[in-house]
Amino acid sequence: MSRAISLAAEIALAHRLADAARAEILPHFRSGLASEAKGDATPVTIADRSAEEAMRRILKAEVPQDSVHGEEFGVEEGRSGRQWVLDPIDGTTAFLAGRATFGTLIALLVDGFPVLGMIDQPVQGERWLGVAGQGTTFNGQPVTTRSCRELAGATVATTGPQYFSQQEGEVFMALAAKTDHKRMVMGGDCYNYACLASGHIDVVCEAGLKLHDFAALVPVVEGAGGLMCDWNGDPLHAGSEGHVLALGDPARLEDVLEAMGGQG
User: Fold this and answer.
1) Which of residues 113, 141, 169 is at a domain's end?
2) Cα separation of 156 and 243, whole Å?
3) CA separation for the pair 117, 182 (Å, rounded)
4) Which of 36, 66, 224, 240 is deepest in the core (most CB within 10 A)?
C-alpha cells in the first residue's frame, strides 16, 4: 500500500470522528469518574463508550456500507471491503490517572491493510494524520522521524512491563540492553508512536496489541519515514498477532531483530 491513494473524503471524515470523540472525552478528563473492569481485566469508562458511540453514529450515517471494528462494541460487518477501526481511548489507565498521554485512534483498512491512520490527543489538541503514499502531518504540518546511526544511541519505549509475558519481557530487555537504556521510556500507549513519528523516540516495542491498538499507528509512523512491523519484521495487517515494532529509522531493523534474538 505504498502508492498514493485519493482519500480526501475519508480524511475529512476521520477529522469529524476525532472531533466527535474529543467532545465526549474532554468533560470526563480528571473528573474522578468511575471505571469498571472488562473481561480481560482492562479498565473501561463512560468516556470510552460514549466516544465510540459518537463515532459509530457518524459512520453509520455517512458510510453504512463500510465495516466498523471498535474496541468497546466489537465488529459490525459491511459490504465494501473497507473497515474503520476505532479505539476511543487508547490508554484508559493513563486517562484515569489524569495523564494526557492517551489518544483516540482511528484507522481505515482496505482489504485488511491500514491506508489511513489518525492519533488524536484531545487534552493537548494534538492530531497526527497518516495516509498511504503521503507524508504524515501533525496539526496540519509535516513531520518526520529522526535518523539513528546506531542502536546503542537509540531511545526505546514501551507502555509497560506488565503487558509482556516472561518470555516477551526477556526479549524486550535484550533489545533494551543494546540501546541507550538510561533514556528508556515507560508508559505512553499510542503517544509513544506519535512521538516517534515526530522524531523524539527511536524504537517502540510492544506485545499483546489488538487490531484497534495498532491499525491507526501504521500509516502515521510510515508516512513520517519510519517502519512498523511484527517481531519477525513482517508487515502489520488485520491478522497480525500483536507483537509490534516501530522504528523511526528503518535502517536499524536488522539491528533490532538481531538484538531481540529473532524472537517472533
Assistant:
1) 141
2) 15
3) 31
4) 224
